[in-house]
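**Backbone shape codes:**
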Amino acid sequence: MRYTGPSCRQCRREGTKLFLKGTKCFTEKCPVERRPYAPGQHGQNTARRRKVSEYAKQLREKQKIKRIYGLSERQFRNTFERVSTLPGVTGHNLLAALESRLDNIVYRMGFAASRKAARQLIRHRHVEVNGKSVDVPSFVVEPGQEVRVRQKSRELVIVQAALEVAARGASPAWIAVDKDTFSGRMLERPQRQSIPIAAQEQLVVELYSK
């Protein structure tokens, strides 16, 4: 089941900003800064514990990555099992697969302020891949495919607001974006060094390998 509660509780649980609320994460004072401990009545007591087991570290890293991309436990585990048979470093393959999801691509291209907003755009059929409407957020985008916001959807407030914020930054090197045509392409499979998230994906591999 996908988490539907307050986004800030997830950030507090992981002890770091996960940037789940889009532009609000940059403009508002984050609760994780005011209360740097886990939510709940025992949160402060947990923060005082000094020794953390290896299993706990692995679990927290898995939860953090899963929450960043907004996946359910089953979706995350299925993605891991799919990439675990591929050649190369499994942890890198896992992040590359997560980055290749359509909802993440729409977010990275700047057409949505967050992955959650990107999923809403996709489900409401505002996004096309190679000229065909796709309403599945988990759709895997391949290098060379074009992702485009539908002509009738380009004036949506959430799209325009996201583009204004995206204009202040740069897209990852493996993505080419043309904001004038509300489109972009995945140029190549993302490499670990070009995936801008702070994560220790090897801990997830160790957790699932037990």
